[in-house]
Specification:
The structure is a homodimer. Chain A is of the alpha+beta class. The first copy, chain A, contains 18 helices and 18 strands. The relative contact order of chain A is 0.14. Chains A and B meet through β9, β11, α9, α12 and α15 of A and β9, β11, α9, α12 and α15 of B.
Chain lengths: 513, 513
């Protein structure tokens, strides 16, 4: 979507600088900006808000502390006309009742780590921010039920620190450190999705404040794995970009911490061999397969140029880099009770088989941290190659390499002076396709090529049964793509849901109608 | 819920006889029956329907073939005023457009294996049946993507037969043989949920015909594991008991067939020990733990009395039966590539540890088929003990045995002459609590006790964070419990969703508003 690549482990926090693509997106976003649904609240209304919550919980323009609530992870600043920092559900309800009465638009913000502008105000300065950062009272672990009840403002690292005391983990593996509410709103995936699934798989319960007259609290905080009492309303708030309700707490099913891990890098010649490796691994290692990440040769070359320290020795010793390199990880419980020989042996046996069959060219084992360091160097290394655009694609795995070929062809046709590189969570059908222009290319031409390329790539991937937003969710950043590639009957239902849950249209930065 | 216990593997088809509870339910259902939303269609309207589809695809009253569409798996017959058997999506749309124009109410029926009356007409004879049994054109396996696109009328056994050719499986493990559409409508669970999850976890895509003027087709047939383009509409049709749209096809993520299995029976003294065994197994065997089923002593005694052939030798040799017996199963891929020693050894090591720690009293290994035969004899054996009512409960696992104790106390208070027995998918927090009255007890008193018990048990389990419908879904059978135990704000949203998707209220036997 943008230069903002939600890279596993590398994270955003090291990438807070203006870049080529951010500038482009800001430009295009400004031109297509719809009118506000409601004007900014009056000074009198803001005064009433200020009196509702305790001291210091409401900020209004002119105060420096507002900046961080207005600025997204990529440094893009969208002014807010107010910021409220509720401490609990009652505070959230007070703010919502006020907003409903005043018809004041609001955007819920968690840890503000998302790349699609869904957590900062829309341009125009008419929206306020409800920051959930103070809603952190509860992290209640139920070891026997393997669940945790957690406030929306708690961040992933804190949650996992507490769970770790009971050898449990919320297995969403990211470089960023989002809040619970933000992960629900984006249905976060991450690098271990192939084993552990997305956030949706773990949500057993939600508590949500609705943006209606009464600020109704939907208490759907079940910790049940089997519960079939009609359609499951909580599903609607997952991946809804904070447009239907304000998540204030969640019950997550959590997993035992894996205590063994084996990682290898595998060189392959082409997509067909990569997919053979994948299907064989899944059949033999089943759920132990915990990551399957691919890097292509142009990406490896960029890492070799800009981050040679991240190149593991076997790849650094002057030999030609492989066309495709796959990082494979298996994980499992420990072996204290016997039962298993080591995972390294299991992985070695699988790769030996692949080697004998001809679909593994070469393979290297190494310390997990070293091999992941290579994978996680990808986005930063590519950024240093020149002005770029990064796509967040996914497709059925059986069509992924066909999509990849066709994207490469398009790049050759539309942007003949640009280079193509890619990497991604191939095990989940994910691919981050990166297009890099020469530094000295005239900006106007670059912009034109980029716009053409976007339109063509989105068309192509959608036609192949794929998606233009695999992991990042929908926000103002990509809502025009949402409109173009979502059939009208589906958009009509989204609009109907929006009216049902948010009758005055006061909630969220994203317009999904 | 009813005498209808959706027992893993035992299935319904062997249980098609009137029983105590069925008679009771029919009685209570008739008395609380709401008025039809719309009257039955006129003869002229039925004539128009008949002309819409090809010959033999529409049945009207008077034809013997109608009976099976009107009769549920427990033999309860609710007359239909028409039956349509569409062959494909176009036929489904024709029927829906007709129904919308005529305001004719309709119930979608799959393989008709559900126990809550959601797939047969409501009482009153004003509803028609749309049987999906002829919609079976597609079973399209994508081995590399590990997905299958399948028509709604295909049954589970056929689906797994086709998947098995590629060593894949749709891992919903039931005694019954439901259709794809029925499994989506009920969000079926089954005996392997602890490892493989429910139907929802596997639904990657749906195609749905909406009951609106145009019989709109929602084509959400994605096969993507990562796709975050806004709220996920298809979730609404899962577990909706066929009230929001007609599912015509699904894309399921599927799993490799497990090729190793180890099963043991474990004797435990009390709930605390059972839960220690469960948490230890989950930590050590992780996803290899594929079943954790409990039977209590009264259940074992009933099996010993009525199905002594199902008692494995160690339990049959005259010793006192354990208070609680757990069937534990591990499964895994094969070991052709090395990597693992046998699962039997792994399970034995875990049970040895439990024995040393004092929370495993005794354990026996045996052929999986033999040990499962014991588990699957439970419901039939208990039925032979006398008139009964069976509850389909689940609770957070940490509170399950507390709930169990309190249900037993209630039975002692409310029905002092009745006996209590139970069994269930304890690994998922599920428990089937069975109450059996003496054969010679006066029916009126029995009925009164049963009604009191139902009210009290539903209150109790709901207050403890549990559910009155763990696996069976909601239908006319239990919609009064739904109304009583669903907060008004949640029911209000259900009603809003119903209006959005089904503006004339023509679809489904179940009233969730």
């Amino acid at each position: 979507m943008t230069g903002a690549e939600f890279d596993s482990r590398a994270g955003y926090r090291m990438q807070r600088r203006e870049n080529f693509d951010d500038r482009m997106v800001s430009g295009s976003s400004a031109s297509g900006e719809p009118k506000p649904r409601h004007p900014a609240p009056s000074p009198q209304a803001l005064h009433r808000l200020d009196k509702l919550l305790g001291s210091g919980q409401v900020l209004i323009p002119g105060r420096d502390e507002m900046t961080r609530y207005e600025t997204d992870v990529l440094g893009r600043r969208h002014p807010a006309c107010w910021v409220a920092r509720p401490r609990d559900v009652d505070d959230v309800r007070s703010v919502v009742r006020w907003a409903y009465a005043e018809r004041a638009e609001l955007v819920v913000q968690g840890a503000n780590t998302g790349p699609v502008l869904a957590g900062v105000p829309r341009r125009g300065g008419h929206q306020g921010v409800v920051s959930m950062e103070l809603c952190r009272s509860t992290i209640d672990v139920d070891v026997v039920n393997r669940t945790v009840t957690v406030s929306a403002g708690v961040d992933l690292e804190t949650l996992n620190e507490v769970l770790g005391r009971d050898s449990l983990t919320f297995p969403i593996d990211l470089g960023a450190n989002p809040s619970v509410g933000g992960m629900v709103g984006a249905n976060t995936g991450g690098a271990r999705l192939i084993r552990h699934g997305d956030v949706r798989r773990h949500v057993l319960g939600l508590e949500v404040v609705l943006p209606d007259e009464h600020a109704t609290v939907l208490s759907l905080l079940s910790g049940l794995r089997k519960d079939n009492r009609g359609p499951d309303l909580k599903q609607l708030f997952i991946a809804s970009s904070g447009t239907l309700g304000i998540v204030t707490a969640a019950v997550f099913g959590v997993d035992p911490v894996p205590l063994q891990v084996a990682v290898a890098l595998v060189a392959a010649t082409d997509g067909e061999d990569v997919l053979r490796l994948l299907t064989f691994l899944e059949a033999r290692a089943t759920e132990r397969l915990s990551a399957f990440e691919m890097l292509s040769r142009p990406t490896l070359e960029a890492i070799a140029r800009h981050r040679p320290d991240r190149m593991p020795l076997p790849l650094a010793q002057g030999r030609r880099l492989p066309e495709l390199l796959v990082l494979v990880e298996l994980n499992d419980s420990d072996i204290a009770t016997g039962g298993h020989q080591g995972l390294d042996e299991e992985l070695a046996a699988i790769l030996d088989h692949g080697s004998a069959e001809g679909w593994v060219d070469d393979a290297w084992f190494g310390p997990p941290a070293t091999l992941w360091a290579l994978r996680n160097a990808a986005i930063d290394a590519l950024r240093q190659e020149g002005p770029m655009v990064a796509f967040d694609l996914s497709a059925p795995r059986s069509r992924l390499f066909e999509v990849r070929e066709r994207v490469m062809t398009l790049v050759g046709q539309i942007a003949p002076h640009a280079r193509y590189a890619d990497f991604g969570h191939v095990g989940d059908g994910g691919l981050h396709s990166i297009v890099i222009w020469p530094d000295d290319m005239e900006a106007g031409r670059r912009d034109k090529e980029r716009d053409q390329l976007r339109t063509a790539v989105y068309e192509l991937v959608t036609a192949a049964g794929g998606t233009f937003s695999a992991e990042h969710g929908v926000g103002p950043e990509n809502e025009s793509a949402f409109r173009r590639h979502t059939p009208p009957e589906v958009r009509g239902l989204h609009a109907g849901l929006k009216s049902l849950f948010d009758p005055q249209g006061i909630l969220g930065a994203t317009d999904l109608s």
